[in-house]
What we know:
The chain is 4% helix and 49% strand.
Amino acid sequence: MNPFVGYDNIIPLLAPADITSNDTPTAYMDLKGANRAAILLQFGNIHSGSTDTETITVEGATDPAGTEAAVAFQYRISGEAASANTWTAITTATTAGFTLSLTDDGKCCWLEINPDAMAANDYRYVRAMIKPTVSAQMANCLVGAVGIIDAKYKMTTFVSATASASA
């Protein structure tokens, strides 16, 4: 058990990537055996025109090789990572997600996923989707992601919680 956080399993979902013009999914996270689950997105420089944005959604699937569907989730956005340890209030996102813009350089986004709500829709797997909305390709938009699971059954060795994305 990790004594530093309330969650047990920290899973790499997206190595830092420059997402400038293509929709980019993280790897899937398997919610089997999860009490709670979250995805932490870390943004570096979002360098673009003033109207360019990144839309963040969460998708669920019954099978990691199957078809995804956008799901509702809760989120918080940090202050700029290098200078502010502040977070917005918890906000509920619809299936349309939420949007980040040029002013969101250096921020983190905490996406909270309810495993029970996913199971009610037969969704065992979830992932985040980062979608640039740009008039022309962005100069850069650096993003990385980790999944975090609070496991129902505590173990000294984690059961794999990743799965291939179907995108």
